[in-house]
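Mods, move this if it's the wrong board.
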Amino acid sequence: MLAAMAAVAAAERRLSFSNITALAPMVRVGTLPMRLLALDHGADVVYCEELIDIKMVQCQRVVNEVLQTVDFVAPDERVMFRTCEREKDRVVFQMGTADPDRALSVARLVEKDVAAVDVNMGCPKEYSTKGGMGAALLSNPDRIEAILTKLVNGVSIPVTCKIRILPSLQETISLVQRIEKTGVTAIGVHGRFKEERPRHPIHCDYIQAVAQAVSIPVIANGGSLDLVKTHADIAEFRRLTGASSVMLARAAMWNPSVFNSGGPLPVETVMEEYLKYAVQYDNHAFNTKYCLCQMLRDKVESPLGKRVQAAQTNAEISDAYGLSEFHQQIQEQLQSRRDALQGGDPSDCPVMDGDVTTMAVKFERRFYPPQITPKMCLLEWSRREKVEQPLYHTVQRSQDRSFQSTVTVAGKKYRSSQWEKSKKFAEQAAAIVCLRILGVPEGRVGEEDSGLVCKRKRERILNGATEKEQSKKRLIEMDVKQEAKNMETPVVSNGKHAPGGEPGDISPELP
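Not the wrong board. Structure tokens:
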């Protein structure tokens, strides 16, 4: 009896793809802040960006009690995918895969934290197709069948896929009918051929024929540029395609309130809402910049746009939007949670290892302003106290090539018990241990100015005037302009993606 009731409850919670409007999977855009914002404005379902199976299968599932999220963390400590309870029943995890066994391993890894899994079969970009993923799967229906069958039989949540149309209508119908037989719950159809791009008209007749050829829900995709500019256009797009549901990419990227049945909000309001989520969930600053610049569109060269592009941290972006106080409040809340969680935790207490004082700390660059580091603060402190400059001794571990550094200051040695991915990070971690033992501020964002970093250096940092920074900025701008050109979208960003910010650096096409 109890088992039957549990089965009924599970069925009721099972995500439906009938008559929904969804946020489509989008390169660099479909991270947690954008997904939550789309839900706020009326999206029924939200897709994350495509995440590659080879990278995801190496991840560890980590409950982040500070952010109140579930993070999937790669061996190099990058957060590939971040989700939270708010979206648990409505987020679809999209993967890039060409291997049934690996696809199942990834699906089982995320199964408890998402509402469905989707296989990308439409990305036409070389980084996806050269691995046999994305649109390359369209020419290998046997592989498609093997992957989807393995997933459907191997997980308890719905399995879907997203395709592009094939050169002929009959080929397209034959493929989707074969896909339906695998037991998938729904099919997303981007109404363009593999070689077509957003400037080409969408083929609504193909989507309509697919919708008539299968009995499962079909989700129409690809109408943002031509057909869907406001919420009122969504119903018309559904009618033209005969599809059960609609997913939006660019229209939602430019203003997520397109999902709002009451009409869109001013994009300035939506950008502030997005930024608040980015701060709350510690979104990587470059990803935050990227999404904001997509919303700025032709105003990216405005004074606000230039400030956003020049920013290096979420704190600086918040300042540009007049949200510095909000940013500070969130940082204080997060720090309070950290303190509460670490209370009585021996890993946060100093431990003597021979003549070396150790603590379990890691260096995370995003917690520090541009060019201010713990090493800089420790150096300035040693000068002020008139002691010898810090001396670092670093070793590398052979099995995983990680680094650990010991710093000697005033005749005493300090070291983090945690290993880092680079020599520089290991030295920074050692400096943090020393500063915390000494009770000296380490330069973190939101920390009261200690006066250790001289005025000249602070001004140089704040103005971003160093030649190195300017060179880096130019390289970033060139990189994003090239990517925007490849994506055939307006050049509106100079941000780099960092997962988990930034989740995964290989993502599906923008419909």
